[in-house]
Specification:
The protein has a domain of 82 residues: Bacterial muramidase (Helicase, Ruva Protein, domain 3, Orthogonal Bundle). 51% of the residues lie in helices and 11% in strands. A five-stranded antiparallel β-sheet has the order 6-8-9-5-7. Helix 7 runs parallel beside helix 12.
Length: 334
Amino acid sequence: MAYYRLIISVISFWVLLLLGTTTHANITQQPNVQQFIHEMVQKYGFNEDELVKLLGQATIKQDILTAIARPAEGKPWYQYRPIFLTPERTKQGVEFWQQHSETLARAEEQFGVPPQIIVAILGVETSYGRNTGKYRVLDALSTLAFSYPKRADFFRSELKEFLLLTREEKLDPLTMHGSYAGAIGQPQFISSSYRNYAVDFSGKGQRDLIHNTSDVIGSVANYFAKHGWQNGKPVILPAIARDNDYKKIYTGDLKPRLSINEWGKYGVDAAVKQAPNQELAALVELQSAQDSRQLWLGLNNFYVITRYNHSPLYAMAVYQLSEAIVAQKKALEG
């Protein structure tokens, strides 16, 4: 009888795991977790007993591993775009801009980043703070740091940054929630970005990206400024290929390396009048339908958007949402 109970328990465990439930085993017995704890104690002065107790409360979640294996950025552009370019998201973006116009103007004056870009980032990331994530950050980062070998080094580093962040900002690591990848707050900053780029834009003495919208706006603007945003410069230009010569050198690299004039030598021209032909650009190719593609020339500011999320689909969604928000706001204001 005990044998059959054991078999049933094993089967039940795997069924629950496949259904995306959680695993509550104490991860602090794993060698990789013990090594991490030792590093945090030796290098950063954490109390070992307290850290063992904290990480012992982390939960490994199968649905996080499932989610990271199939991100939205894996979709073609024609399927990705409708997720973010919607009338409702555009309308909410205009409302957010109107509600926080003074703070957005102050951020533009201080950091040189236009309001529509800040607003669009928040629209794509969390629908302007409406959806900031359902997972405890501790669970998300522990799951990916210790049960996702493909990117374990990156997420161990982010778990380290998270522990340092919560200590510095006096935050409770057990109550903070975010995305399946551990991104935090309205702008979905990962912990390293939170530590390096968040600012106290409200002057309240703490950098709060969860509840304080002024801090959120200032921090997004600071992030873009620190990554080289050029105020008043274009973001991306539509392009036309005269032939297929560009495919000889096209790699998908988003870093602008050739001037628009130089792209012309490979049969790609900007489809706008008075293009800044000496500006460096990267070729962006997006699947606009099942069997067709569209070409764009991404300039420095487009590349800066991809420092927030490295996907060209993400950057294009932010840019096009920003343009839609500007157009609707102008229409409403006459």
